[in-house]
Design a protein that fits this description.
This protein is α+β, with helices and mostly antiparallel strands. 47% of the residues lie in helices and 15% in strands. The strands form 5 sheets. The protein has a 10-stranded mixed sheet. A 4-stranded antiparallel sheet has the order 16-15-18-20, with no helix packed on it. A two-stranded antiparallel ribbon has the order 1-2. Helix 17 packs across helix 18.
């Protein structure tokens, strides 16, 4: 018997460890890259953390970006101090918080209904996509479920009245103190905590109605809880009284009380939001790609079934089962932050429901477990060889087949939906502003220091000067977070030419920037234009190019001309660069005479003599127009050809120029300088 109990103890711990490892794996796999990018709310947390590190100040509230509670930002501060400026540094604290929330939710369910319920709660939360995602991004909302689960578990312990404590309520004082501290700290996590007094008030009313004796017996502990919580809350409360316009501003911006949000129909909006919020668990969830795989409900069909059963069980046991009442009442009240605000359901504003919403699938799984036992369908591994039950099976925690299958289906659903569908969704890429983040990584790669888009570079710094358009610096918060301001210069005009000639200019493409850039460059130079990454805002119908990179370097050694055209234009080289989406033809041009006209380059790609792809465009993505060339400049000109897989044995290039205004072709010249056609045919030479 002792040996069996000992084995059971070890197997219980092994199962808990396995569930924690599954939860950790889902939250840590490909961390920092999935989801891609770094949204400006996350980047602002990083900027505030940098301010804390640089100044040594420790604000109670961070007023930037509509105001934010401080606790998560201090975790980010510690992470950046260790790891430097990178998306991973901002997001890694969420992993640790999410992992601790798994353990805290296990503890809450165990206190309410025992170890088996704790295991199911841990398993359910471990594979819940909502919480997996929260644990991988740098939003402060991830802290609220942790503190909610922690202080509710301590309250539950304080309210329990085994015989040893009926006449000695002081023995629970530690639980009440811990609950007060944790509850007070929850106000420093996320603004949805402001609705928790309503939830606590509803729970007290429930206790007075249905568990009056036990509730009244806890009055001393309740006073201790309130006193400790108020003491912890006092600094933030004083700050709020002194700066209500800072702390409460965001609430007024998003509430459906505003006619701008309800469209003059408050009651209709309230009804619609109530239905949407109720349906977020198993019908349709948050549409915002930063919070969710758009429209995916909280639970997949497997756990959705357990959730519905659990709701029924909770309703049936509402009066006598305080844990079921906690799940119903707390979840209902803590949906108010999303129900009463725009964009319902909104998974960040609703985050306070997570620890108690998990309890519904747990109740459902417990019911299924009990039903299987009653029908003789519990899973026990039997050894038919010895004609008696295996000792190993007797010592293992029982895994009912239906429960096990539901959890496995939930794990597979979350893994596929998150790491396949969500991670590769273009809108997830754009809504996390991955394009500007890639731009910042490119800047650091050019500088030779900082996060280069994949890893941290530690120098030595490259001898290159970076000029950046102020509009780009101010528009994308990730850029000033990831790129130190002292490492770049603002693009300003008028400016004296920079004699360095190891220059890169990052400009907003949708303005006339040529004069600004070229006034900085000593000519002649080697000039090349590189299209930056793309972005798509929440309200943009199509992606757009974030920036253009203009590089100016000393002229390198060049080969003999491939051919010459009229007006003094010389083609120095032509190489083909294979790529995943096709091939890119790179041409190197120069001129030996000033040019007054703008010419368009055409590139035809031929296979066995037939044109299979072509691209026309002015040099340098139309930013290095021929009329601006200086004698001695070397111009790199790129022409993308989608879908092309080069075959040098069969392929050739046809290259020529024509006037952009008239369409007249520019003649190619032979060795004697006479016109020899409107293009040149070249073999395909692949880049080394």
């Amino acid at each position: 018997m002792k040996r069996s109990a000992h084995s059971r103890w070890w197997m219980e711990r092994a199962l808990l460890l396995l569930l924690l490892l599954v939860g950790a794996g889902l939250r840590l796999w490909d961390a920092g890259r999935t989801p891609p990018g770094l949204y400006h709310d996350e980047a602002q947390n990083g900027l505030d953390a940098l301010t804390v590190l640089e100044t040594g100040e420790a604000p109670l509230y961070f007023p930037a970006n509509n105001g934010r509670e401080p606790l998560f930002i201090y975790l980010v501060t510690a992470s950046i101090a260790l790891l430097g400026r990178s998306p991973l540094a901002v997001r890694l604290p969420s992993f640790f918080v999410g992992f601790l929330t798994l353990a805290a939710t296990y503890d809450l369910a165990r206190v309410l209904w025992g170890r088996r319920a704790g295991r199911w709660a841990l398993a359910v939360l471990a594979v819940t996509l909502w919480h997996v995602h929260l644990s991988r991004i740098g939003f402060r909302a991830v802290l609220l479920p942790l503190f909610t689960a922690l202080f509710l578990a301590q309250l539950a312990r304080g309210l329990r009245t085994p015989e040893s404590t009926i006449h000695n309520p002081q023995s629970k004082i530690g639980n009440w103190i811990a609950a007060g501290v944790l509850y007070g700290l929850s106000w420093y996590t996320y603004m949805a905590a402001r609705f928790t007094p309503v939830a606590l008030g509803v729970m007290v009313l429930y206790g007075l109605l249905f568990h009056r004796k036990q509730t009244l017996r806890a009055w001393r502990g309740a006073l201790v809880f309130c006193g400790v919580a108020l003491l912890v809350l006092a600094p933030l409360g004083v700050y709020t009284l002194r700066h209500p316009d800072v702390v409460l501003a965001r609430t007024g911006q998003v509430m459906i009380l505003s006619p701008e949000i309800n469209g003059g129909d408050f009651w209709g909006t309230l009804v619609r939001h109530t239905l949407r919020t109720a349906g977020m668990f198993f019908v349709r969830g948050d549409r915002i790609w930063r919070h969710n795989l758009a429209w995916r409900p909280v639970w997949d069909p497997a756990l959705g079934l357990a959730f519905l059963i659990g709701v029924g069980v909770a309703l049936a046991g509402f009066r006598r089962n305080a844990g079921a009442a906690l799940a119903l009442l707390w979840t209902s009240v803590m949906t108010l932050p999303t129900l009463l605000a725009e964009d319902a359901p909104h998974f960040l504003r609703a985050v306070g429901v997570l620890p108690t919403a998990v309890l519904f699938p747990v109740l459902g799984l417990l019911w299924i477990d009990k039903w299987q036992m009653a029908n003789g369908k519990s899973v026990r591994h039997e050894s038919r060889i010895m004609n008696h039950e295996s000792r190993i099976a007797r010592s293992c925690p029982r895994l009912p087949s239906t429960v096990y299958c539901l959890l496995c289906l939930a794990f597979l659903s979350t893994t596929y939906d998150y790491f396949v569908r969500y991670a590769n969704a273009p809108l997830a890429y754009h809504w996390f502003e991955a394009g500007p983040v890639a731009m910042a990584g490119k800047i650091n790669a050019l500088l030779g220091e900082g996060w280069d888009g994949a890893k941290m570079l530690h120098g030595p710094a490259a001898e290159r000067r970076i000029y950046i358009d102020r509009q780009l610096w101010d528009s994308w918060t990730a850029v000033p977070f990831l790129v130190p301001e002292k490492a770049v210069r603002a693009l300003s005009v008028p400016a004296a030419p920079d004699p360095t000639l190891n220059l890169t200019f990052i400009v907003w493409p949708y303005r006339n920037w040529e004069l600004d850039v070229f006034s900085h460059i000593v000519r002649p130079a080697y000039l090349r234009v590189e299209a930056g990454p793309q972005a798509q805002g929440d309200k943009d119908e199509q992606p757009f190019t974030v920036a253009m990179f203009i590089h100016a370097d000393p002229r390198p050694a060049v080969p003999e001309p491939v051919t010459r055209f009229a007006e003094g234009i010389i083609l120095r080289a032509a190489l083909v660069y294979p790529g995943d989406a096709g091939a890119t033809v790179r041409l190197w041009w120069e001129t030996d005479a000033p040019l007054t006209a703008d010419y368009t380059v055409f590139v035809h790609y031929l296979r066995d003599g037939a044109v299979i792809a072509q691209h026309d465009g002015q040099p340098g993505y139309a930013h290095l127009r021929t009329s601006g060339w200086v004698v001695g400049d070397l111009i790199l000109d790129e022409h993308p050809l989608s879908g092309i897989i080069p075959d040098p044995a069969r392929d050739s290039l046809r290259i020529g120029l024509y006037r952009s205004d008239t369409g007249d072709a520019l003649s190619r010249l032979d060795d004697a300088g006479n016109p020899a056609g409107a293009w040149v045919d070249l073999g395909v030479v692949l880049a080394p």
